[in-house]
Design a protein that fits this description.
The protein has about 425 residues and is of the alpha/beta class. It has 2 domains: about 325 residues, ANL, N-terminal domain (Rossmann fold), CATH 3.40.50.12780; about 90 residues, ANL, C-terminal domain (GMP Synthetase, Chain A, domain 3). The protein is built from 12 helices and 19 strands. The longest helix has 22 residues. The termini are far apart.
Length: about 425
């Protein structure tokens, strides 16, 4: 990694968050014109999309022009192979890949070029800085990735698959200043500490991510760890999009790297569909991408902290049901989704917990030459939830969303009983 290049990117981002609204808009529109022309010239999918819509790159110059471009969804992109979605001037095997987070039930691979990796890392560092982090402080990250620990940064990694007792052991051994992880995993750790009366090392700050954090969970984590909670909102396709500052008035949005639109939802009651455009990713552009999330735009013109970026008040569409087993264990839904997404041949899936020991896995295979085998799904389900459960696999043409139009990739009937 070119650390000088990443440092320069980080410094530019740190300055950008304090700019006024007019300057931020100028940056967005300059980058928008560049990514539009690049995508039309080098990415077959977008050339076809623009041509079919009867528009050209010259038609897109301002933020208001974006509405001329059709919205793209993950299901649409899944119908095309990498040769249609990736910059034709780049070699796919030389690009870094990541899978989507699992909140939509549609496994999806995103391809990153090296310069964009610097952008993602700088975005993450900027969010950490807003939570009070500085280089040299100890950070323990509970994630689903296989990242090697960055000893020079004093970063250590723990697996989302680790049980609470092992995670507590790692926290106590490393004694981090900052603890980062998905909301359910950190809540499970806190519940384990309380139920066993085992004292754990108390980090200075807790950073939650991947799931919506409600007020009771925030209070529970703060009460257990005696630490301030900061929440991050990010997507594989966009990197870190929103983060809390010390004012906790909502999420500051990374408008220097992303354009965020709020599209109306019928009977949405103040909630909007969140559509985003990535202004930095040239290897696999995302233009007017429907994130699958719904949220409430921030009402404040600005935050008392002084940052110039717009605010997102709340994300409403990222809650995944926690899985509760007969023996009393609660399993983070992301433990399951991260494993299911590694299987080939799934266009979309949904896991329904019928009761404490029975699970139905609905699978859309789409127009795929390779379809997932039932025994592969059984193996994943049993490896995460135990051999005692019963698993029923259903192949479906289309998985219907729940009432209100929200798709829930993990749906627990136990929680609703």
């Amino acid at each position: 990694m070119n650390f000088l290049k990443m440092y320069r990117t980080y410094r530019l981002m740190m300055r950008a968050q304090w700019l006024d609204r007019l300057k931020i808009q100028e940056i967005q529109e300059r980058k928008l014109r560049h990514v539009i022309r690049h995508a039309y010239k080098n990415v077959p999918f977008y050339k076809r999309l623009f041509d079919d819509a009867g528009i050209s790159p010259a038609d897109i110059n301002t933020l208001d022009d974006l509405e001329k471009i059709p919205v793209t969804t993950k299901s649409i992109l899944q119908e095309y192979g990498p040769e249609f979605l990736i910059n034709r001037t780049m070699v796919p095997t030389k690009l870094k890949t990541e899978h989507s987070s699992g909140s939509t039930g549609r496994p999806f691979t995103v391809f990153f070029h090296s310069d964009y990796v610097y952008v993602r890392n700088a975005l993450f560092l900027r969010g950490l800085r807003a939570a009070g982090y500085s280089i040299g402080r100890k950070l323990l990250l509970v994630t689903d990735s296989d990242n090697a620990s960055k000893h020079w940064l004093r970063w250590r990694y723990a697996s989302i698959q680790d049980p609470p007792e092992l995670l507590l052991e790692q926290v106590n051994r490393y004694r981090p200043d900052f603890l980062y992880g998905c909301t359910t995993s950190l809540r499970q750790l806190a519940e384990y500490m309380r139920s066993t009366n085992l004292l754990g090392f108390q980090p200075e700050k807790i950073i939650t991510t991947a799931e919506m954090i409600d007020a009771p969970t925030r209070r529970f984590l703060e009460g257990t760890f005696k630490a301030e909670i900061y929440d991050f909102y990010g997507l594989t396709e966009m990197g870190l999009v929103g983060w809390e500052c010390h004012e906790h008035n909502g999420y500051h949005l990374a408008e220097d790297t992303t354009i965020i639109e709020y599209l109306p939802i019928e009977n949405g009651d103040g909630v909007s569909k969140i559509v985003m455009t990535n202004l930095e990713l040239m290897s696999m552009p995302f233009i007017r991408f429907d994130t699958g999330d719904i949220g409430i735009p921030g009402k404040r013109e600005s935050c008392p902290c002084g940052r110039g970026f717009s605010m997102l008040e709340r994300v409403e569409g990222r809650r995944l049901d926690c899985i509760q087993l007969k023996d009393g264990r609660r399993v983070s839904p992301y433990k399951l989704t991260c494993q299911l997404e590694k299987l080939q041949g799934i266009a979309r899936y949904q896991v329904i917990q019928e009761d404490y020991g029975t699970f139905t896995v609905k699978v859309e295979t789409g127009k795929r030459r390779v379809t997932v085998r039932d025994d592969e799904i059984h193996k994943v389900m049993h490896s995460v939830l135990g051999n005692e459960i019963k698993v029923v696999v259903q192949k479906a043409v289309n998985i219907e969303p729940t009432s209100g139009g929200k798709f829930r990739v993990i749906k627990s009937q136990v929680q609703e009983a």
